[in-house]
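Annotators were shown the component list below and the corresponding predicted structure, then asked to write short factual statements about the assembly.
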Amino acid sequence: MAKPIVKLTNINKHFGPIDVLHDISLEVNAGEVLCLLGDNGAGKSTVIKTLAGVFKPSSGTIEMDGEIVEFTGPRDAANRGIATVHQFGGTFPLMSIGRSFFVGVEPTRKFGPFNIFDRKTANEIAVRAVREFGITRIDDGDRLVGGLSGGERQALAIARAVHLGARVLILDEPTAALGVKEAAHVLRIVLQARQRGLAVIFITHNVVHALTVGDHFAVLIRGAKAADFKKGEKSREEITDLMAGGEAMAELEAEIKSYSAGQTPQAN
Amino acid sequence: MNRSFSLGGLLRRPEAGALLGLVAVLIFFSIFGGTSFLKIAGMSSWLNVAATLGVIAIPVGLLMIAGELDISVGAMVPAGAMTVSIISGHLGLPIWLGIATTLGLGVLVGLINGLMVVRTVVPSLIVTLGSLFAVQGMVLGLSVFITKSTSVALKTEGLAKILLGDFVFGQLQVMVIWWLLATAAYVYFIHFSRFGNWVFAMGGDKVSARNAGIPTERLTVTLFVLSSTSAAFVGMCQAILYNSAQVAGGQSFIFNSIISVVVGGVLLTGGFGSVIGIFFGTITFAIVTQGIYYTDFDRNWSSLIIGVLLLLAVLMNNTFRRAALSYAPKHKGAK
Ligand SMILES: Nc1ncnc2c1ncn2[C@@H]1O[C@H](COP(=O)(O)OP(=O)(O)OP(=O)(O)O)[C@@H](O)[C@H]1O
Ligand SMILES: [Mg+2]
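Structure shown to annotators:
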């Protein structure tokens, strides 16, 4: 089998005296979606920030295509093909679709002696790139990003990453703020990215979303990897339990039920 | 996509409010003051004010688009005037040395402002408040120390006078030409070159911009250098024009430039605005302050008009920005 695109080995991270990650080892292959699951504060965001060059690991190694790499910063990681899309798309709400799509890599054309921003090309490419992901409602590159829906913004950010040559796509809770329909769009786009051969790391608190797109799952509990399994190896209930931090969800549910049973029934 | 003229498209641009504001004050003063302020002599009165302010307002506005403020321009105007006057007037050294030193001082203060803003997490309002006072103090102290006075005479002749401190076409100052040239250059850099895109991205979301590979720190420092050098340039030109410089004055540039920029449609929190909007905003401001002389109103009322104008402009710009945000093209409905 080919080498994984990214492989973390025994990553530890502490901020001063606070240990956040213990011996995390993960790998993700091209054309595969790795779901990173875990309760609030489990360390998911810290893992991906380490992977995106924001934090340096305190110890442990990161390999890309079998070679050890040390990122000097987010820019370095991005140049090596690691793209992070944040919850709200991390885009510029008051910029046009075409302009925000090409921030930092603006296409230019000659105008007499001047190099000017090629608005037409930028808009065309940006609109085509999002439409390829099935967002056909976007057809004017001059529209402002802030006027798009949450799902459309995610789509734009993912299309941008793919267009700029990302090989690893990191999505930190991309569906958290979205309604059912918008979330479904984003999940479909994640699967399309996978189909194009990207490695996707997908963080979510939603078991259904995770099961829909995930090929491979890793669960973090208090900074350590508590489970690592492939699609179909665990039931939905088992995964829910793990995500809640290992406490049996059934117990919790029973407890919740006993509270509501103790209350006088509401009039409606 | 067909880009023929449309009123809706115009209203969604950042300068829409500024243009309407300009039309409104033109109508207002035409009614109450007649059209003489639109004739050559009247025009030069407000064009001179607009030019002097506009050269500073545009870089101040660009900083605002990028998410920063620079109020130290209020000290840099008299600093520029005093520097050239002390060197080339009081000390009698060549004018070119005075000009070079003045611009060098502008670059230096801009570098200090910019580096302090990017190296510390102190907001630029506070950093430039500090440099405003520091530069004021230094200019006063050094002027009194060197010249034993707070005002210095400066006699300039030849090319420097013609280029920097003279009149063209009667009462029109040469500064108007500088202002138009600067505006054209800024329009190119901000709206047509790729650097402009970086400024907007930086003002929209600094972290994302940096992660997208934009040299945000270098760009921020550059913008601070531009604003403080422009302010020093304006002070220098005024000294050459009026043949003298005073330590006092200059503070009016702080508020006047911010008003012009905000009336011009720049979002105070950054990420949105246009050079043409700032250009219109500056003209609007200048017409209000000068147009009052052509009416029967007492000139004290001009501050009231400016205050009302500012509030109206902000409200209007907010409305237009919201319209721009929610705009989605109608497909089949429109012809
Ligand atoms: N810069 C930091 N300094 C100190 N502690 C930190 C820092 N960043 C994160 N932490 C701590 O590390 C732990 C893990 O945080 P992290 O943001 O990775 O959690 P998460 O799994 O992403 O949670 P959530 O689901 O709420 O987003 C938390 O306890 C947090 O307080
Ligand atoms: Mg998180």
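Statements collected:
1. The first strand of chain A starts at residue 6 and ends at 15.
2. Chain A is about 35% helix and 25% strand.
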